[in-house]
Amino acid sequence: MNSKKTFVLLVIVIALCGAFMKNLFASKPVAVPSSLYDIHMKSLDGKDVDFSQYKGKKLLIVNTASKCGKTPQYADLQKLHEQYGNKVTVLGFPANNFLWQEPGTNADIAEFCERNYGVTFQMFEKISVKGGDQAPVYAWLQSRTGEKPDWNFAKFLVNEDASKVEFFKSSVEPLDSKITSELK
Fold this sequence. Notes:
The chain is α/β, with parallel strands linked by helices. It has one domain (about 35-184): 3-Layer(aba) Sandwich (Glutaredoxin), CATH 3.40.30.10. Helices cover about 35% and strands about 15% of the residues. It contains five helices and seven strands, in the order αβββαβαβαββα. The protein has helices at about 5-25, 75-85, 105-115, 135-145, 175-180, and strands at about 40, 50, 60-65, 90-95, 120-125, 155-160, 165-170. The strands form two sheets. The chain has a five-stranded mixed β-sheet with strand order 5-4-3-6-7, sandwiched between helices. A two-stranded antiparallel sheet has the order 1-2. The radius of gyration is 20 Å and the shape is globular. About 30% of the residues are buried. The mean pLDDT is about 90.
C-alpha cells in the first residue's frame, strides 16, 4: 500500500474513533426538577432527605471531596454552619467528578468528615455534579444559573424561596465576604 492510501486510511480510522469517543462520552440530557423543593436525596447515612424541609431557608450547596487541595474548606464550612446556622443551611455533596478526588464510600466520607473536620452540617451520599449522571439538585442549580461546578468546593447560594441562586467558584472560600454579606 502506498503512503497516500495509508495516510487516507489512517485519517478515516482517526475520524471514526473520534466520532465513537464523542458519542461515548457525550452528556445525555438530565431531567431537571421543576422545583428545588420537589427533590429527594439520600444523606450520607442513607436516610431520605426531602428538600421541601428547606423552604424558607437560605441554602449554601457545596460539592465536596476528601482528597483535594481545597479539602480544608470543610473547616470553614463547619464554621459557617456554626456562626451563621440561623441564617443559612449548609448542604454538602461529595462528588468524584474532578480527578477522582472523592474515591471513598459514603461510610468512608462520613468518617473522614467527622474525624478531620468535625462536620455536623448535612452531608449527602456521593453523587455526580455534572455530565450524563448529574444529580437532580445540580441539574436544577445549573438550570437556574447556567453554571456548573468548576472544581471541588464550588458553591451555590439559594435564597429562601429558591427564586435567586448565586454561583461562587471553588476559589471563593466559605467565609469570604462575597458569601457572608449575603447572610445578613
